[in-house]
Specification:
This protein has 220 residues and is of the alpha+beta class. It has a single domain, classed as Jelly Rolls (Sandwich). The protein contains two helices and 13 strands; from the N terminus they run ββαβββαββββββββ. The protein has a seven-stranded antiparallel β-sheet, covered by helices on one side. Strands 7-12-9-10 form a four-stranded antiparallel β-sheet, with no helix packed on it. The protein has a two-stranded antiparallel ribbon with strand order 4-5. It starts with a strand and ends in an 8-residue tail after the last strand. Bound molecules: succinic acid and fe (ii) ion. Fe (ii) ion binds next to loops.
Length: 220
C-alpha cells in the first residue's frame, strides 16, 4: 500500500511543498522481490562502477543503467549512450516490471503516459552522496523524472530552479517513489551522505532507480 502526499502541505515540514513534485510513500514495496531479482540480472550483465566526472572526480555513488540508453560521465562530459562503455555492448533492456512501475508512479503523480527509455541505477554505500544537481542531459523536459528508493534510508535534498534556492529535506525509505516534472522538472536535487545501517533485504546499501526519457521522440 502507498499513500500520496500532497506537496502543498505547509504544516508537513519534512515533506516536499513544491508544485510538480510528489512523494509516493512505499509504492514500490509490494514488488520489492521482483524488482531486486530483475536488478540482479541487470548488474550481472552491466556491473556497478564508479564513474569519473568531467572534472576528474571519482563519484562516490556506483552506477549502471538499463534501457535503450544509459547515463554516463567521463573526462569527455555527461551524456546518454546506447552502449555500456565498459563492455561495448548495449545496456541490458529495461524489465517490464521497471517500466510499468515508473509509468504507474508518474500517472499517480499527475503525469500520464510516461514511457521511460532509460533507468539510471545508483548504488550508495554508507558515506556516498550526490551533490545538488539538475537532471538536464535529457532532450525532453516535458517528461517527468521517477525515482525509486530501495534499501537504506537517505535524506533527499530538493531545491528550486536556482542552486541558491531553499532546499527541502525529505527522508526517503525503502519503497518510496519521488516523481518530479512540469514546473519542478529542472529543480536542483541531491542526496546527503548515506548513514550507516543495515537493511533487511539490502544490508548496508541504498539503491536508487531513476527513470527518465532521455531522447525526444523524433530522434529515437
Ligand atoms: C539522482 O538524482 O539521479 C538520484 C537521486 C537519488 O539517489 O535518490
Ligand atoms: Fe538527479
Amino acid at each position: 500500500m502507498y499513500s500520496q502526499l500532497s506537496l502543498f502541505e505547509p504544516d508537513r515540514a519534512d515533506e516536499l511543498c513544491v508544485a510538480g513534485a510528489v512523494v509516493l510513500r512505499g509504492l514500490a514495496r509490494s514488488n520489492e522481490f521482483a524488482i531486486l531479482s530483475a536488478l540482479q540480472s541487470i548488474t550481472q550483465a552491466a556491473p556497478f562502477r564508479h564513474m569519473v566526472t568531467p572534472g576528474g572526480y571519482r563519484m562516490s555513488v556506483a552506477m549502471t543503467n538499463c534501457g535503450s540508453f544509459g547515463w554516463v560521465t567521463d573526462h569527455k562530459g555527461y551524456r546518454y549512450d546506447a552502449k555500456d562503455p565498459d563492455s561495448g555492448q548495449p545496456w541490458p533492456p529495461m524489465p517490464k516490471i521497471f517500466s510499468s512501475l515508473a509509468t504507474a508512479a508518474a500517472d499517480k503523480a499527475g503525469f500520464p503516459g510516461f514511457k521511460p527509455d532509460t533507468c539510471l541505477i545508483n548504488l550508495y554505500k554508507p558515506g556516498a552522496k550526490l551533490s545538488l544537481h539538475q537532471d538536464k542531459d535529457e532532450l525532453d523536459f516535458s517528461a517527468p523524472i521517477v525515482s525509486v528508493s530501495l534499501g537504506l534510508q537517505a535524506t533527499f535534498l530538493f531545491g528550486g530552479l536556482r542552486r541558491s534556492d531553499f532546499v527541502h529535506k525529505v527522508l526517503l525509505t525503502h519503497g518510496d517513489i519521488v516523481v518530479w516534472g512540469g514546473p519542478a522538472r529542472l529543480a536542483y536535487h541531491g542526496i546527503m551522505p548515506v548513514k550507516n545501517g543495515e537493511h533487511p533485504l539490502l544490508g548496508a546499501t541504498r539503491i536508487n532507480l531513476t527513470f527518465r526519457k532521455a531522447k525526444g521522440e523524433t530522434i529515437v
